[in-house]
Amino acid sequence: MFTGIIQAIGSIRDKASRGGDLRLSVHSGNLDLSDVGLGDSIATNGVCLTVIELAADGFRADVSRETLASTTLKDLQPGNSVNLEKALTLNTRLGGHLVSGHVDGVGTVLERREDARSIRFVLQAPKALARYIAHKGSICVDGTSLTVNQVNADHFDLNIVPHTLQETIMADYRSGTRVNLEVDLIARYLERLMLGEQAAGSTPVGVTEALLNKRGFIK
Predict the structure, then answer these.
(1) Is residue 194 part of a domain?
(2) What's the CA gap between 184 and 54, in Å, rounded?
(3) Torsion of CA 122, 123, 124, 125, to 10 degrees
(4) Is there a domain that residue 149 lies in?
(5) 19 lies in a domain?
(6) Rounded CA gap, 169 and 124, in Å?
């Protein structure tokens, strides 16, 4: 688990194909690796990766075919910057929100514009994720815990303050940039729980007005 508070900006040293999947070598920048061991998790642009090799200034991790298909990691090239966060511990401050490091889909930056000293971004999410994105709710973008300012169908707005721009890779975002998205954990589990026994059925179901009425959400 992670908090979505980026601890350092690292960079990709190299990537190598390994029988259909990928091995990434990451320079850790200012990330303190003194308490990291083999098998530990480090979120890299929001993707939970397992450390398989460790050095004083970086680590290597294998990336599965599933992860390559579901995230932007396959697009990374040597020299590209990445957000890094070590897994939280029981005495870690939860400054963002609970993040699993399991990316739900890839979004796209549609617009970037100045908004006083902040930058306003408009992003498009995959349509299947749009129902989990709420006004003033939390969303994780490339590992960064952020607050949704506005929602319009599958588009949502983010207001990024100067500190976040300085401490993450968001300063590099432009129209067309692809980003990893992880929606709020609570929203995903709430939907599943509301389905109750229907969740185990063979026919896919969703949250409908009839189901909300049955569960007492509609008076």
Answers:
(1) no
(2) 31
(3) -140
(4) no
(5) yes
(6) 18
What's 143's DSSP letter?
T
Is residue 59 a part of any domain in this protein?
yes
Report yes or no: 169 and 157 within 8 Å, Cβ to Cβ: no
Torsion, Cα 83 169 140 162, to 10 degrees, reads 130
What range defines the domain where residue 38 resides?
8-86
Q: How many residues does the chain have?
A: 219
- Residues 208 and 213: their CA atoms lie apart, in Å, by 9
For residue 55, give every residue at least 6 positions away whose Cβ sits within 8 Å of its Cβ, in sequence order, or none.
none
Structure tokens at 142: 């490339």
Q: Identity (one letter) of the amino acid at 194?
A: M
Domains held by the chain: number: 1
Residue with tokens 């514009």: 113
Q: What is the pTM of this model?
A: 0.88
Q: What is the CATH number for 50?
A: 2.40.30.20
Residue 59 near residue 30, CB atoms below 8 Å: no
Structure tokens belonging to residue 21: 């999947």
Do residues 58 and 74 make contact, with C-beta atoms less than 8 angstroms apart? no
Token digits of residue 74 = 């396959």
pLDDT 10s digits, 105-129: 999 999 999 999 999 999 999 999 9
Give 66's pLDDT tier (boundaries 50, 70, 90): very high
Dist CA 37 CA 32 (whole Å): 12
